[in-house]
């Protein structure tokens, strides 16, 4: 088993998630050791939700899971990079392919591109 | 000024750093609000070093700075993505282009590619 440095940062490591075909960065999430081991054994990206304080299989509610194609580890053993196939085409809960759909331009944020889905249809009116 | 959610995570936000031409992820670092404002005003990637507990202009000792070409913000205002021109060609203190030079294969880590520079020549024998 590959041992990562979960102790250094209070048990949670940042995870950079890229589209395995285009290298577009889709999102950033966190894993604790249980999420890391679940990701390795299931090949579905599994994170630790800091807001809900529990394991979170990405796409468990929407069906838009992330199939893991490649895993990289950084030089300090404290950051994970996943290259994934994003089922449904969108990683962001706001319906965009990437969570990084806003660009800094002239001191403000410009939305780039269009949503792939309507969050209200996927998650309902009030939650995400 | 664009306001990010520095309060949510104790003042430090993760920053994903990509090569602006290839979209390869080079490293992950952290910014506090001062580092964020310095990056915006100087256009050189400036981070907060968690180990040294101070601002860190990437490349200040080696000359291998990161010229910022594009900045993206995620949907929660709590993660930054920089697309940079990495002067010197390598972002990793171990001499590799990317800090993510190791891949998970069959339960262990395989080094991908070769270093761009020898860290001993750039930083000296004992430090990085």
From TrEMBL, chains A, B:
Q: Which locations, inside or outside the cell, does it occupy?
A: Cytoplasm
In terms of superkingdom, the source organism counts as: Bacteria
Catalysed reactions listed for this entry: 1-(5-phospho-beta-D-ribosyl)-5'-AMP + H2O = 1-(5-phospho-beta-D-ribosyl)-5-[(5-phospho-beta-D-ribosylamino)methylideneamino]imidazole-4-carboxamide; 1-(5-phospho-beta-D-ribosyl)-ATP + H2O = 1-(5-phospho-beta-D-ribosyl)-5'-AMP + diphosphate + H(+)
Which SUPFAM superfamilies does the record cross-reference, listed alphabetically? HisI-like
A Gene Ontology biological process annotation? L-histidine biosynthetic process
Q: Which family does it belong to?
A: In the N-terminal section; belongs to the PRA-CH family. In the C-terminal section; belongs to the PRA-PH family.
Protein name, per record: Phosphoribosyl-AMP cyclohydrolase
Q: Which organism is it from?
A: Desulfonema magnum
């Amino acid at each position: 088993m590959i041992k990562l440095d979960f102790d250094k940062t209070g048990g949670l490591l940042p995870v950079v998630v890229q589209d395995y075909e285009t290298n577009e960065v889709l999102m950033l999430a966190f894993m604790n050791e249980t999420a890391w081991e679940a990701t390795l054994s299931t090949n579905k990206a599994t994170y630790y939700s800091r807001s809900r304080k529990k394991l979170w299989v990405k796409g468990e509610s929407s069906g838009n899971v992330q199939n893991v194609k490649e895993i990289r580890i950084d030089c300090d053993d404290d950051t994970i990079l996943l290259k994934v196939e994003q089922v449904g085409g969108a990683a962001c809960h706001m319906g965009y392919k990437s969570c990084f759909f806003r660009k800094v331009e002239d001191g403000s944020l410009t939305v780039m591109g269009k949503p792939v889905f309507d969050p209200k249809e996927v998650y309902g009116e009030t939650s995400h």
